[in-house]
Protein: Uridylate kinase
Organism: Ruthenibacterium intestinale
Amino acid sequence: MAVRYKRILLKLSGEALSGKTGFGLDVDTIQEICGGIKAAHELGAEIAIVVGGGNFWRGRSSGEMERTRADQIGMLATAMNALAVADALEHLGLEVRVQTALNMQQVAEPYIRNRAIRHLEKGRIVILACGTGNPFFSTDTASALRAAEINADIIFKATMVDGVYDKDPKKYPDAKKYDTLTFSRVLNDKLAVMDSTAATMCRDNRLPILVFDILHPENIAKAVSGETIGTLVSE
Ligand code: UDP
């Protein structure tokens, strides 16, 4: 079957990996998500994954701590998540490489763009950890940056809601879901898709983002094959 998107960058938030507890790692949840990734891979997609770290730590909510240091802790949190996802994918028989934006050579490869692309071409899943390697950024921005670098066709932002709404659907039952959106609208209306740095990077580099819910991991394969799910944000 022909795929709609050949090379995708999948953003997995830390929260998605934590199951019902919202903190730490939930092995069953991670296995389910990885089953969804495998199904998408079997369709022929090349998959790079950027993992978040919010299930352990977010620099911006660290109170008194110096922000740079707080963000370094956040970046290390993403590395733990990357290893957990790598392990689950390997258990499913997939070939995986973890690359980190901060050097930790005993644990993973350093991020090298050309090498990441080579892995993808060979059918390996590449997991990108430690965000951009810089404080004051988010893993959403890292997703935009890496997607642009590896010439991804699209970013899949797998979240806990099934798309982008005009207001928080958990608080407002009358919230309206968008099927499509432009980046200008996202930025002007401050819609909670991703932070503005990430949204601006996607807009400037003509990178679409599909936002959908990861509570149904089969959505990843559906999205790869072009089924209409979630909210598509594009130019
Ligand atoms: N972080 C950072 N630079 C980056 C990416 C992430 O400093 O390029 C830190 C930041 O503290 C952030 C934390 O890592 O809060 C975890 O990432 P994020 O909040 O994006 O994770 P998510 O909310 O997607 O789980």
The two ends are 27 Å apart (CA to CA). The mean pLDDT is 95.
